[in-house]
């Protein structure tokens, strides 16, 4: 399951098969240097240098590979198709210095070789494709980001029975142990008292999937506080407002926000950013039983606001609200949350673009710029205050759902905003919210169908720029 770290190695001159990258514009010049039989083989393979095309040619006693790329500026995915189709072995790029962005493309070389085979007893064992590179300084970062992507994919791809709240706790505990961090887990009566909405959403689950709040802390106590929060709904039936069967098929991925938060927390610790890290994951299963919370119920929240339940299938914002309230109590310099929160975001932006909401333009702009630079785009939507009217309740401080179908991603973000507090100076906390899909519905080079990190690398590079040395 996953990938191997040795897929990218420093080039020390060892034996390797050559990969020549070409564009449609430069292919004719490349073909001139090839022998007649080589050109004939390319013609037989219908290779024209178009982006994504690959070809294999004999070369002396060995062979070489050709890969088509859009232009000389490589994206994260320019080497991915080669890593998917070439035979197992060791490779190096010819004229590596002639292309910009090779360090970006190292990521796709690795993520293309990801396989989730935990349950496939007869899965074919493919040998790795190892890439030697002269970009030695980029290797550590590329490996770390690929491992973070792998963690998100593994957690999201794992079925709910094996990735319930207890399993998420084990994952967090493993991360904590590896980085000398601390993990506090709140369950049972203490959860009901301190985080009443997390408890209410998760209380109908079986005992071995009981709800809990995971709170990971790391870093020197007087460093700037960075808070990461991730929605950990390990399976979402919709509760008593039950989803149709088709709507439940992918609900093992409803903890994708938690997967992003944990992967990002691990990146922060691995890189040693000078922050006081607080990573909070409310982990629940939104199940159906006689003690499930009901439409029309009014729930207490940690913040003290009362919440009327207009829809039990809008449960993610409830558990996030308690976690965001707790994170706010640390007066963070920055708070980011990740959640597979609304279908409305997918209707608006499709599966590839996480919807980004932010209180400040500076933070939003930094995240957008990092996403563009790292081929991990996000798209900003507004925290349009007038839409808060749709969350009014006749009997409580706020309703968790609107009665219309308009701007569902916006109203969900506005709901969350009510639970994000102020910093120590009494100013609104700098907060950004990612409404992400965490799933690839169709395979593309470097991105197989299944769980996916979307918005993770944008956030990571923004954090490096803000808190890195």
Automatic annotation (TrEMBL):
<keyword id="KW-0378">Hydrolase</keyword>
<dbReference type="InterPro" id="IPR011356">
    <property type="entry name" value="Leucine_aapep/pepB"/>
</dbReference>
<keyword id="KW-0645">Protease</keyword>
<dbReference type="InterPro" id="IPR043472">
    <property type="entry name" value="Macro_dom-like"/>
</dbReference>
<dbReference type="GO" id="GO:0030145">
    <property type="term" value="F:manganese ion binding"/>
</dbReference>
<keyword id="KW-0031">Aminopeptidase</keyword>
<comment type="similarity">
    <text>Belongs to the peptidase M17 family.</text>
</comment>
<dbReference type="InterPro" id="IPR048816">
    <property type="entry name" value="Peptidase_M17_N_1"/>
</dbReference>
<dbReference type="Pfam" id="PF00883">
    <property type="entry name" value="Peptidase_M17"/>
</dbReference>
<dbReference type="GO" id="GO:0070006">
    <property type="term" value="F:metalloaminopeptidase activity"/>
</dbReference>
<feature type="domain" description="Cytosol aminopeptidase">
    <location>
        <begin position="311"/>
        <end position="318"/>
    </location>
</feature>
<dbReference type="GO" id="GO:0006508">
    <property type="term" value="P:proteolysis"/>
</dbReference>
<keyword id="KW-0464">Manganese</keyword>
<dbReference type="GO" id="GO:0005737">
    <property type="term" value="C:cytoplasm"/>
</dbReference>
<protein>
    <submittedName>
        <fullName>Cytosol aminopeptidase</fullName>
    </submittedName>
</protein>
<dbReference type="InterPro" id="IPR000819">
    <property type="entry name" value="Peptidase_M17_C"/>
</dbReference>
<dbReference type="Pfam" id="PF21337">
    <property type="entry name" value="Peptidase_M17_N_1"/>
</dbReference>
């Amino acid at each position: 399951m996953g990938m191997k770290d040795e897929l990218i190695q420093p080039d020390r001159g060892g034996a390797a098969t050559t990969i020549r990258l070409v564009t449609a514009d430069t292919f004719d010049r490349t073909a001139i240097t090839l022998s007649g039989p080589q050109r004939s083989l390319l013609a037989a393979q219908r290779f024209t240098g178009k982006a994504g095309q690959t070809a294999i040619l004999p070369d002396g006693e060995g062979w070489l590979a050709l890969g088509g790329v859009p232009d000389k500026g490589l994206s994260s995915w320019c080497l991915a198709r080669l890593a998917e189709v070439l035979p197992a072995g060791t490779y190096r790029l010819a004229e590596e210095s002639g292309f910009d962005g090779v360090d970006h493309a190292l990521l796709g070389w690795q993520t293309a070789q990801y396989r989730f085979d935990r349950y496939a007893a007869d899965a074919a064992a493919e040998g790795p494709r190892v890439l030697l590179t002269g970009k030695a300084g980029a290797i550590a970062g590329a490996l770390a980001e690929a491992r973070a992507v792998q963690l998100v994919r593994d957690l999201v791809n794992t079925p709910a029975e094996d990735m319930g709240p207890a399993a998420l706790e084990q994952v967090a505990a493993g991360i904590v142990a590896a980085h000398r961090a601390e993990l506090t887990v709140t369950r049972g009566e203490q959860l009901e008292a301190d985080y009443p909405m997390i408890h209410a959403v998760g209380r109908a689950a079986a005992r071995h999937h009981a709800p809990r709040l995971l709170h990971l802390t790391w870093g020197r106590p007087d460093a700037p506080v960075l808070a990461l929060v991730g929605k950990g709904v390990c399976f979402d039936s919709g509760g008593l407002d039950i989803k149709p069967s088709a709507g439940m098929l992918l609900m093992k991925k409803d903890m994708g926000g938690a997967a992003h938060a944990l992967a990002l927390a691990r990146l922060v610790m691995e890189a040693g950013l000078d922050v006081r890290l607080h990573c909070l994951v409310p982990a629940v299963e939104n199940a159906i039983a006689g003690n499930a919370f009901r439409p029309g119920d009014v729930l207490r929240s940690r913040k003290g606001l009362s919440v009327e339940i207009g829809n039990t299938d809008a449960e993610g914002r409830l558990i996030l609200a308690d976690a965001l309230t707790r994170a706010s109590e640390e007066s963070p310099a920055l708070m980011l949350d990740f959640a597979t929160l609304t279908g409305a975001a997918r209707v608006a932006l499709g599966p590839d673009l996480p919807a980004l909401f932010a209180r400040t333009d500076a933070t939003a702009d930094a995240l957008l710029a990092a996403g563009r630079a790292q081929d991990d785009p996000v798209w900003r939507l507004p925290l349009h205050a007038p839409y808060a009217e749709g969350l009014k309740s006749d009997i409580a401080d706020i309703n968790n759902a609107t009665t219309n179908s308009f701007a569902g991603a916006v109203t969900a973000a506005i709901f969350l905003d009510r639970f994000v507090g102020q910093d120590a100076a009494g100013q609104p906390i700098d907060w950004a919210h990612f409404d992400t899909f965490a799933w690839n519905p169709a395979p593309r080079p470097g991105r197989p169908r299944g769980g996916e990190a979307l918005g993770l690398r944008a956030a990571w590079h923004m954090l490096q720029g803000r808190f890195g040395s």
